[in-house]
Amino acid sequence: MTAIEARDVALSFGETPALRGASVSVASGEIVAVMGPSGSGKSTLLHCLAGILVPDSGEIHFEGRRIDTLSETERSALRRDRFGFVFQFGQLVPELTAEENVALPLLLSGVKRGAALAQARPWFDRLGLTGLGRRRSGELSGGQAQRVALARGLVARPGVLFADEPTGALDSLTGEQVMELLVTSAREQGTTVVLVTHDARVAAYADRQVIVRDGKVNALVHS
Ligand SMILES: Nc1ncnc2c1ncn2[C@@H]1O[C@H](COP(=O)(O)OP(=O)(O)OP(=O)(O)O)[C@@H](O)[C@H]1O
């Protein structure tokens, strides 16, 4: 079954064409790495798939439903309830503790505080963060913060986890540890993953790599 799909998507920023007829289809439970040169349109494609940007033309489908034609409110609810996100710089909320950060997607979806924190806590042992739940993001290393961000991305069991350069700010060993945890956790809960990366070693963790060039998805590599 297809989880998420872009069909012939085009999007320009003013005069700059970022996507020029990009198509990609990601199966349910599949982990796909989006590779390609700087400026080729990888992040724009990810943002279109995730309902953050609306294409000028083409279609985005999630679980068989067209989502690019939804209202901003509906797309925002879809992102909150069905999608998870991990970015290059964890983007944890500095005022919250690590476990509050992980619980955040659940709290925003209306889960009560106690229940949300109870669901967040097991992620600390799972991701090698035992004892760090009460720390704030300023008191975590880059790798620890990125594992907290990963837990936050997965805690609500999203249909799709979108990860934009999730290891881009980490040294290679720490990056590989985060990738191993990302892949293991996503597989355990059957989460589909769309991952943008420059790094071939990171992409090698995916089931499949797609290459974006000049705003098109023009090559498929099975790893
Ligand atoms: N908000 C924006 N406003 C104007 N132009 C943009 C914007 N975002 C992206 N672009 C342009 O669109 C094109 C594609 O950008 P995008 O960020 O998708 O590429 P990318 O492949 O993710 O690049 P990188 O690997 O460097 O992050 C580039 O030419 C970029 O300059």
TrEMBL record:
Q: Answer yes or no on keyword ATP-binding.
A: yes
Q: Which lineage is the organism of this entry classified under, starting from the top rank?
A: Bacteria, Bacillati, Actinomycetota, Actinomycetes, Micromonosporales
Give the UniProt keywords, A-Z.
ATP-binding, Nucleotide-binding, Transport
What protein am I looking at? ABC transporter ATP-binding protein
Q: InterPro entries annotated for this entry?
A: AAA+_ATPase, ABC_transporter-like_ATP-bd, ABC_transporter-like_CS, ABC_transpr_LolD-like, MacB-like_ATP-bd, P-loop_NTPase
The record's section on PROSITE patterns has: ABC_TRANSPORTER_1, ABC_TRANSPORTER_2
- Recorded source organism is Micromonospora globbae
Pfam family name, one: ABC_tran
- In terms of superkingdom, the source organism counts as Bacteria
